[in-house]
């Protein structure tokens, strides 16, 4: 066992300079100044990546095409070393705070477990760095609101990693909804076959030695401390209950299936109908056990209606864990026509059904046999951010948009704690008006030593 991976928090603070502006810990030096004058459209952007395995590998590859990758950071040496073979000129880091001490970084990609998205993004933003952050952009509603405000104040370019927002399928779907082809919308549904990781389980008992390749304290970050537990007998692909994939189901680290896929599939509902904040949310499925999200969820949101809605209010329902909307909602459709992941708009004159990552369909088919939807071309979500960082164009899922949309998603993660209780949401006051208990989950406290100014 490598003792450096199991140092006490006191030793860690004595040997590590906690950087990144807002994350400076007591007794540390003044944070470095933000780099001024990012690359021009004809120059190259200096990009750093935090989290370079899995989705992170794709994020940095896509955003950095034609640019400079100057630094890479990961808490797993195996992943970090694989990335280093590709980005041979990039400096390697385990601690993102140390990496952000550099004054040559223009922009940062953040592709970590969900609970670290906002602390890292906030630190980078307060140093004047542009950020591309994986979805969901935050772990709590308060984080989403504060980091969006910080980004606006700093004037940095932001993008959340819900890349389907730029895809042809959802762009075409939104255009179709707004065109009125199915009339005004009466209700909407969004669903996913996730989770494909363990949920509805208790916290693993005991502890295991931290492997030499993993920096466990850095992996935990702002989350409450817990012991490392390695892969259990029969674990799929040798994965542990936390690192490197199964963290999504745990309340301390992930946002479950809703956070993973809701940020994609709820997006065209909020976007297409131009919805504001919901006023009511409730769950009609099982509750969390206080440790992980349940195996499946059915969550209902009620919004004020808009010009595209048939009534003064409209309901959107989220389903996951294999649950789907009834095929009876779509005239002429059978169960086999309802995809594993998708979104459905039920209108006055028909329905729009859109499988995730595919083009929308009009139902009933016989009624729309001669109707062809106007296809809207897609865009490169990653390069859109890169070019905007260089002063060319804008991003479509910047925090002004993705912040409120993430808040909507996160409201569902609170509702699932209180099945069948309709929670009344006051967005302006950022609180539930009928549940002091639920308000405890609008924000959270960070682990001592990991506080971020304005957060936790």
Strand content is 15-25%
CATH superfamily (homologous) name of the largest domain: Dihydrodipicolinate Reductase, domain 2
Structural class: alpha/beta
> SSE order, as H and E?
HEHEHEHEHEHEHEHHHEEEEEEHHEEH
Q: What composes the largest sheet?
A: 9 strands, mixed
Domains, number: 2
Report mean pLDDT, rounded to a whole number. Answer: 91
Euclidean distance between termini CA atoms: 32 Å
CATH topology of the largest domain: Dihydrodipicolinate Reductase, domain 2
What does this structure look like?
The chain is α/β, with parallel strands linked by helices and 456 residues long. The protein folds into two domains: 3-164, Rossmann fold (3-Layer(aba) Sandwich), CATH 3.40.50.720; 167-196 and 255-378 and 399-439, 2-Layer Sandwich (Dihydrodipicolinate Reductase, domain 2). It is 26% helix and 15% strand. The chain contains 13 helices and 15 strands. It has helices spanning 9-15, 55-63, 77-86, 96-99, 117-126, 141-154, 168-179, 216-220, 256-265, 267-272, 381-389, 399-415, 436-439; strands spanning 46-50, 68-73, 91-93, 107-110, 130-133, 158-160, 185-191, 280-283, 298-304, 313-319, 342-347, 351-355, 361-363, 423-426, 431-432. The strands form two sheets. A nine-stranded mixed beta sheet has the order 13-12-11-7-10-9-8-14-15. Strands 3-2-1-4-5-6 form a six-stranded parallel beta sheet, with helices on both faces. Helix 5 (117-126) packs parallel to helix 6, helix 6 (141-154) packs antiparallel against helix 12 (399-415) and helix 9 runs antiparallel to helix 12. It is globular, with a radius of gyration of 22 Å. The chain starts with 8 loop residues before the first helix and ends in a 17-residue tail after the last helix. 51% of the residues are buried.
């Amino acid at each position: 066992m490598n003792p450096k991976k199991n140092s006490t928090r006191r030793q860690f603070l004595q040997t590590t300079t906690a950087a990144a502006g807002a994350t400076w810990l007591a007794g540390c030096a003044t944070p470095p100044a933000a780099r001024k004058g990012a690359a021009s459209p004809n120059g190259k952007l200096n990009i750093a990546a935090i989290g370079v395995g899995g989705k992170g590998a794709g994020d940095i590859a896509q955003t950095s095409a034609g640019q400079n990758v100057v630094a890479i950071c990961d808490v797993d040496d195996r992943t970090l070393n694989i990335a280093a073979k590709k980005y041979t000129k990039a400096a390697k880091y385990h601690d993102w705070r140390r990496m952000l001490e550099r004054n040559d970084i223009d922009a940062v990609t953040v592709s970590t477990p969900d609970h670290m998205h906002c602390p890292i993004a906030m630190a980078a933003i307060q140093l004047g760095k542009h950020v591309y952050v994986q979805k969901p952009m935050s772990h709590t509603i308060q984080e989403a609101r504060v980091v969006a405000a910080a980004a606006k104040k700093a004037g940095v370019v932001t993008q959340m990693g819900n890349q389907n927002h730029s895809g042809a399928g959802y762009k075409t779907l939104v255009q179709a909804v707004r065109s009125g082809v199915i009339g005004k919308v009466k209700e909407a549904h969004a669903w996913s076959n996730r989770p494909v990781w363990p949920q509805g389980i208790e916290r693993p008992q005991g502890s295991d030695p931290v492997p030499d390749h993993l920096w466990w304290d850095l992996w935990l970050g702002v989350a409450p401390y817990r012991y490392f537990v390695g892969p259990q007998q029969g674990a799929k692909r040798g994965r542990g209950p936390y690192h490197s994939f199964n963290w999504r189901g745990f309340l301390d680290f992930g946002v479950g299936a809703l956070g993973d896929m809701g940020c994609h599939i709820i997006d065209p509902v909020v976007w297409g109908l131009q919805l504001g904040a919901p006023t009511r949310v409730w769950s009609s499925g099982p509750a969390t056990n206080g440790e992980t999200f349940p195996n499946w969820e059915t969550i209902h949101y009620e919004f004020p209606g808009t010009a595209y809605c048939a009534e003064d209010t409209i309901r959107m329902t989220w389903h996951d864990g294999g649950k789907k909307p009834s095929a009876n909602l779509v005239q002429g459709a059978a169960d086999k026509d309802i995809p594993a992941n998708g979104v459905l708009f039920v209108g006055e004159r028909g329905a729009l059904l859109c499988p995730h990552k595919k083009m929308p369909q009009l139902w009933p088919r016989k009624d729309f046999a001669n109707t062809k939807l106007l296809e809207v071309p897609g865009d490169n979500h990653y390069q859109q951010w890169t070019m905007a960082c260089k002063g060319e164009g804008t991003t479509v899922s910047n925090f002004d948009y993705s912040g409120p949309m993430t808040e909507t998603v996160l409201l569902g993660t609170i509702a699932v704690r209180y099945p069948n209780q309709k929670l009344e949401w006051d967005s302006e006051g950022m609180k539930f008006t009928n549940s002091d208990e639920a308000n405890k989950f609008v924000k959270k406290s960070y682990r001592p030593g990991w506080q971020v100014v304005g957060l936790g």
